[in-house]
Amino acid sequence: MGASGTEPSAGGGEGLTKRRGCSCSKEDFLPEESFESWGNYVNALRSTPARFKDRFLTRSADSTELVEMKARSQHEMKKTLNWWDLIWFGIGAVIGAGIFVLTGIEAKDHAGPAVVMSYVVSGVSALLSVFCYTEFAVEIPVAGGSFAYLRVELGDFVAYIAAGNILLEYVIGGAAVARSWTSYFTTLCNRNSNDFRITVDDWSENYKYLDPIAIGVIICICILAVMSTKGSSRLNYIASIVHVIVILFIIIAGLTKADTNNYKDFAPHGARGIFQASAVLFFAYVGFDAVSTMAEETKNPARDIPIGLVGSMVITTTVYCLLAVTLCLMVPYGMIDEQAPFSKAFETVGMSWAKYVVAAGALKGMTSVLLVGAVGQARYLTHIARTHMLPPWFAQVDAKTGTPVHATIVMLAATAVIAFFTSLDVLANLLSISTLFIFSLVATALLVRRYYVTGVTTDANRNKLIVCISMIYGGAIATSAYWGVSDDWVGYCVTAPIWFLGTLGIWFLVPQARSPKLWGVPLVPWLPALSIGINIFLLGSIDGDSFIRFAAWTVIILVYYIFFGLHASYDTAKDSEAKKLEGGKYETKIEGTKDCGLDGAHNNKASTEPAS
Fold it and tell me: What are the residues whose beta carbons fall under 8 Å from the beta carbon of 415, sequence distance 6 or more?
């Protein structure tokens, strides 16, 4: 840092400046030309349609995400993680509030003992999404995760919409886990779930229990997350080992009290109850995408990420099914406690002492989920801010810790606010919508990545791909809608073949335009198409109020984009292009912005013109 106390940012001209102390200025948040004066801003607003068209058609490049975007954080993230770290991060990120709280709610209200089948359905959907994430994380190992993948394949605007929902997913997920932490802590203290919460009787049922303990837990997690990624990994590793020991205890001790009579009414609400529970229990698998955001800090992404992501998901799904079977064998599903099901189950079967072991293990698990979530969500926000869709202040990486301190603090502050007053069931449904929506987009992006390369794919094959993907979505949406309004099966004879023909069309009619360089998803296009189908089908089982909340959030992020994010990202992209030309650097068209996004090595027809 120079004598002036400032240090220009890497990446050139992004307006990112780091000063001594904690002072902030307008340049940290809106450094772009459009915001230099009111006159500039008014002119920018007048150009909104043209700028929106430019950003809508813009696709990033692999190299842009890997080099230029990373440079905008001033300092590199430290490469300290291997596949062993990623497996434990994956286990720590996923096994938490979902299994220890939502299992009880969904078994009692919807699925009964068949909740194990709900976990299987959700697990298959999550595993398909894991495969899609893995190929991207290996090829584009950056902190942006699905935001970066979508930006490369589906363009800036789609990536922004996904980004808003990714951030919502993390905030809601962290808030839900923090509130569940309080519920199990009260069990450990032999108190009722709401005894340590502040009750405001005049507020609605879903918002009247204020949770100061959740805020305290989030503050502690924030301190740990900003200190060191490797340190967080070690703490997560220790906590996860304790967690696994407690899970083994629950399964072994619980099965000694098993009563097979509890399984006589296996699926009291039939298939509809199973799938309705699956949609909510997808919450239990949320978190694995946080592992993909750590690709930038992984020593050998090509080896470590597939092992870490797929390995942790297989372990997690197996554990969930065993725990669900154990719970419903211990007590009749109608007697399951919704707030702390496993602890109360041991109390019901005469093992009151065991509830303290279970509560302690659940707290360890939820602490790991919060910690890994804090690490992952900050890296998402960091990469989004690198594009200036959000203020570049969030993209700064601390030179000493190698962590994105600003992004971590802001995301956890938002999590604390939501956790303070919002109930778990509201959070779980809204979270599942955001997650299933994003996972469907990532699967779509994988199809685009394999079958469309600018300059290689012909217009005819591009049009075939668009039609086939539309058929996949059309069949999936129709199937989901029909499931929501009818108990008959005849309609599926029409809707399911539409999905099948769309997938078959890609397989037979559209040649693959690129092959993965290091690790690839098997059975393309069938696997990503199946991921889209299952995710959309599960969306049809979520309540209407959650879709209203989802729509309201989408409107909010669109308003921000139109008035701020669009103009900031447009200025940054154009400034970057201008500086490349001024420096005499020429790049192939595929390294530019408009209608591109694929690595030059895969486009033999590209010409060597200045990026435009």
Answer: 170, 171, 174, 175, 178, 218
> Which among 136, 122, 138, 123 is positioned nearest to 307, based on CA atoms?
138
Strand pairing category for 6-8 and 17-19: antiparallel
Secondary structure class of 45 (helix, strand, coil): helix
Paired tokens of 597? 């996004």
Q: Tell me the pairing of strands 209-210 and 198-199.
A: antiparallel
Handedness of CA 176, 180, 181, 182 (dihedral sign): positive
Distance between CA atoms of 64 and 254, rounded to whole angstroms?
52
| Termini Cα distance of the chain | 34
**Cα separation of 1 and 453, whole Å?**
43
What are the pLDDT digits (tens) for 379-409?
778 878 888 888 888 888 777 777 788 888 8
Residue-level pLDDT at 594: 39
pTM of the complete model: 0.76
Q: What is the pLDDT of residues 227-278, one digit of tens each?
A: 765 556 666 667 777 778 888 899 999 999 999 999 988 989 888 889 888 8
209-210 vs 6-8, strand pairing mode: unpaired
481: its two tokens? 């809608």
Positive or negative: CA dihedral 294, 295, 297, 299: positive
Q: Which amino acid is at 464?
A: K
Chain-centroid distance of CA 46 in Å reads: 34
